[in-house]
Amino acid sequence: MSYRARPGLYALGNPDKDSPVLVTANYKLSLNILRSSMKDRNAWILVVDTKGINVWCAAGKGTFCTKEILKQINLSNLSSRITHRQLILPQLGASGVNAARLYKESGFTSKFGPVRASDITNYLDSGNSATPEMRRVRFNFTDRAKLVPMEAIPALKMVALFSLVIAVLFGISSEGIMFRQAITGATPLVFAGLTAVFTGSILTPLFLPVIPFRAFTIKGFISGSLGAIALVSFADVYRNNPFLLLLCLIAVPLFSSYLSFLFTGSTTFTSPSGVKKELRTAWPLYLTGAGISTILLVSVLIKFRGLL
Amino acid sequence: MKTKYLAGVSTLKLTSEKCTGCGRCVEVCPHAVFDLKAHKAQIVALDNCMECGACAQNCSFGALSVNSGVGCASAMINGIITKGDPDLGTCDCSGGSSDCC
């Protein structure tokens, strides 16, 4: 499935020479949302080629940019269709577009419209002015909930791969893979992995403002610690094996912390300086934790085989 | 409930002498970091800054500077693993490199 709309000039309703020109990316969903927010209105929409990526991400990586808008202005012969010389750019495109340079090279002045397409008619009706509320990016529970699958699915894939490897390690014998052994040995570890995904990729994103501390690595460590404690109190198998118990109490909070840290890429407010600061502290801890966890895992395996 | 990220890390700098009070930074900032006071821009909420770079990109008077980028852990971890530098990484969503602008 392609998410790309064809770049160029689109007519919405019956636009004339005085109708506003709205600029957007060629991500189909963005274009469709803009179109439906502008129902029963007359306007021009100038769609620039961002390779099917939304405005904000495209601006961040430089595809929603001054040069591309200039290109579409020329290709669509925009100047001949309208008498005014003003573009309305999406506010979130501002990190990619230099409005002053756009004016110098095209003669078009730019105003930055609201963050959300749903505010566009109010913006136009109030003489192209946005309220402070229209200028703010939000990140509420619903926004975060929509992102949870994007976090959880790749994490679950990691756990699936881990489970497979663990099952083989526990099940392998001189006569092939023993399923009973594989399942008995791997199940507690699979549940540990699932716990970390649940706390790190689902709970932390959903309850982000409620979980204490600002660093995502700490938030994930806290939710993961609670998850690990719940897990080991729930099933005797963890408490009967000190290696397994220690492994869960170390690896689950750290993996959860790592998964929560990845959520910074999906948020609307984390700065690169902040993420780098977290990374500097967390990375050595993750590596140490991974090392200790591997040793503990091998111990669990050896004990399971009756060698310890 | 508003979630805040780490305090005191943003690299955003405003040189007040160069500011003409045009208000473009107030217009483009998605986190209300700026306000206009007495025809000059002021940073009123530095810790809200996510270093997206929209303000510096659109300040025609060179009054704003920021080390802009995307605050994405995947990209930085990828950078550390493949190139030994968090600034050189890309993540799944950054796709291929772009030659535009």
**How would you describe the shape of chain B?**
elongated
| Overall strand count of chain A | 7
Round the Cα radius of gyration of chain B to an integer and report it. Answer: 16 Å
The overall pLDDT of chain A, averaged over residues, is 95
CATH architecture label of chain B = 2-Layer Sandwich
Q: What distance lies between the first and last C-alpha atoms of chain A, to the nearest angstrom?
A: 54 Å
- Principal-axes geometry of chain A comes out as elongated
Q: Terminal Cα separation of chain B, in Å?
A: 37 Å
What is the alpha-carbon Rg of chain A in Å? 26 Å
Q: Record the strand order, biggest sheet of chain B.
A: 1-4
Counted by DSSP, the helix tally of chain A is 13
Written account of the structure:
The complex is a heterodimer of chains A (308) and B (101). Chain A has 308 residues and is of the alpha/beta class. Chain A is 60% helix and 9% strand. Chain A contains 13 helices and seven strands. In chain A, the strands form two sheets. A five-stranded mixed sheet of chain A has the order 1-3-2-4-5, with helices on both faces. In chain A, strands 6-7 form a two-stranded antiparallel sheet. In chain A, helix 5 links the parallel strand 4 (86-89) and strand 5 (109-112). The longest helix of chain A is centred in the C-terminal third of the chain and has 33 residues, at 272-304. The radius of gyration of chain B is 16 Å and the shape is elongated. In chain B, 21% of the residues lie in helices and 12% in strands. In chain B, strand 2 (34-37) and strand 3 (40-43) form a beta hairpin. Chain B has one domain: Alpha-Beta Plaits. Chain B has helices at 24-28, 54-58, 73-83; strands spanning 13-14, 34-37, 40-43, 64-65. The model of chain B is unreliable at 95-101 (pLDDT under 50). Chain B has a two-stranded antiparallel sheet. At the A-B interface, helix 2, helix 3 and helix 13 of A face helix 1, helix 2 and helix 3 of B.
